[in-house]
Amino acid sequence: MPVNPKSLANLNKKGRFVKGQSGNPKGRPKKLPDLEALLISVLGDIKDDKSAMEAILMTLRAKAVKGDIRAVEVLLERAYGKVKEVVDLNSRGETVVKVIRD
After folding, report:
1. pTM, rounded to two decimals
2. Quick one: which of 23, 20, 19 has its CA closest to 8?
3. 60 DSSP 8-state letter
4. Buried-state track 31-62, b at ≥16 Cβ within 10 A, e below 16
5. Out of 38-42, 50-54, 76-80, 98-102, which region has the weakest mean confidence (pLDDT)?
6. What is the DSSP string of 71-92?
7. Interval 44-78: pLDDT, tens
8. How many C-beta atoms surround the C-beta of residue 72 within 10 A?
9. Across-strand partners of 87?
10. CB of 70 closer than 8 Å to CB of 89
11. What are 8's strand-pairing partners?
């Protein structure tokens, strides 16, 4: 990794940072915008008397009705949660796999 010559200027003869001089003069990078607030503003936009969220859900519903399995999965998982799947492995000389679905 290339060394920034400006950071080398902050080192003393022993290779340690000089007291009072930051090793990271620009500081921590700026924080990304709040994702939740961004989603609320984007999905709350109204067009043709429908919010973006309503339009997305109606599109997913239409795809699910036409037989799109992935659309069905997305709708059901969001509404009822993912199906719990437990795997029990036993290795007394043989492998036994037991799958339980709620």
Report:
1. 0.47
2. 23
3. H
4. eeeeeeeeeeeeeeeeeeeeeeeeeeeeebee
5. 98-102
6. HHHHHHHHHH-PPPEEEEEEES
7. 888 889 989 899 999 999 999 999 999 999 999 98
8. 15
9. 99
10. no
11. none
- Report the alpha-carbon distance of residue 23 to residue 7 in Å, rounded: 6
Amino acid making up residue 39: L
Q: Which of 1-5, 54-58, 86-90 reaches the highest mean pLDDT?
A: 54-58
Rounded Cα distance, 102 and 85, in Å? 7
Residues 6 or more apart from 102 whose CB is under 8 A from it?
Answer: 83, 84
- Which amino acid appears at position 96 of this protein? V
Distance, in Å, from the CA atom of 15 to the CA atom of 23, rounded to the nearest integer, reads 12
- Identify whether the C-beta of residue 83 lies closer than 8 Å to the C-beta of residue 73: no
